[in-house]
UniProtKB/TrEMBL annotation:
GTPase activator for the Rho-type GTPases. As a GCM1 downstream effector, it is involved in placental development and positively regulates trophoblast cells migration. It regulates cytoskeletal remodeling by controlling the activity of Rho GTPases including RHOA, CDC42 and RAC1. Gene3D superfamilies: Rho GTPase activation protein (1.10.555.10). PANTHER family: RHO GTPASE-ACTIVATING PROTEIN 100F, RHO GTPASE-ACTIVATING PROTEIN SYDE2. It comes from Cyprinus carpio carpio. This is Rho GTPase-activating protein SYDE1.
């Protein structure tokens, strides 16, 4: 069982690299163990686009979702990369054991990134072009990781943490203001949560439960700044102290909580009827119900 093999530890890179651009760390793992790693800071542009693209302006990666949607003018509320990758992964990847845990070939992934940068409309993710679905999952995670702002916003993150501290059926906390969040980002997060819930519905085959998916996506969908803010302006000079004190455990827990509450296949009608939205409100904590209302899922 893959879940028995998974250990994880966390290092918050922005805080770490304030001190030095190279570190050797002993990272404490959960549930047990230590891994020794050497980290060096490199510019992202040099890492992924190198000399073949020079100073080419980014068209997809690293840009806000609304900018990409506006430029692509596809009629969708989400970037074409999100739409195409999720569609293809669900078409042939939901039965793959350990989906989202493997990255696929770095060279092929770079090729696919560049294809989306050139022209998202012309990208064809067929099995003939990209036989390894792990390449597609890797590019999707790259895109989400490189967004300028996290899809799970600070207000939603804090509201979920508050909700987790109470009994769900008695929770009255709500996201006080999500109206400032870009509609495209809302639609992207909603589509991604739908997708992850669908992948988790095949967990008996792919071994990717909500918990395992949260481990993969928690650090991707939540900014390190949200966790680091809990420590104020404190700078961690000792690398081992940083590795143990700043981690993504809460990020994983928050996403796991959301995925557990997120409606499954029986509620994929997007709650367009009044009757459905009313019945849903009885079992959905206010934090999630308000989020769905702000994103347009509940009418």
């Amino acid at each position: 069982d893959l879940s028995d093999m998974c250990c994880h530890g966390t290092v918050v890179l922005p805080t770490l690299f304030r001190v030095s651009k190279t570190h050797q760390l002993a990272v404490r793992l959960e549930p047990r163990g230590i891994i020794y790693v050497k980290l060096s800071l490199m510019e992202q542009r040099k890492t992924f686009l190198d000399a073949t693209e020079g100073d080419h302006e980014m068209q997809v990666f690293g840009l806000e979702a609304w900018r990409v949607v506006e430029r692509e003018a596809s009629g969708l509320m989400v970037p074409l990369l999100i739409e195409k990758c999720i569609s293809e992964i669900e078409r042939r990847g939901c039965q793959v054991v350990g989906l989202y845990r493997l990255c696929g070939s770095a060279a092929v992934k770079k090729e696919l990134r560049e294809a989306f940068e050139r022209d998202s409309h012309s990208v064809e993710l067929s099995e003939n072009n990209y036989p390894d679905v792990n390449v597609i999952t890797g590019v999707l995670k790259d895109y989400l990781r490189e967004l300028p702002h996290p899809l799970i916003t600070k207000p939603l993150y804090e509201s979920v943490l508050d909700s987790m501290a109470k009994r769900p059926e008695t929770t009255s906390c709500a996201v006080s203001d999500l109206s400032h969040v870009c509609v495209c980002a809302q639609a992207t997060l909603r589509k991604l949560l739908d997708h992850l819930k669908r992948v988790a519905s095949h967990h008996e085959v792919n071994k990717m439960t909500c918990q395992n998916l949260a481990v993969c996506f928690g650090p991707v969908l939540l900014s390190q700044r949200q966790e680091a803010s809990c420590h104020g302006n404190r700078v961690f000079i000792d690398s081992e102290e940083l590795a143990s004190a700043l981690h993504f455990k809460k990020h994983i827990e928050v996403l796991h909580y959301l995925l557990q509450l997120w409606p499954g296949e029986t509620h994929t009608s997007r709650f367009t009827s009044f009757q459905t939205s009313v019945s849903f409100s009885y079992f959905c904590p206010a934090v999630l119900r308000d989020f769905l209302q702000h994103t347009g899922t509940v009418q």
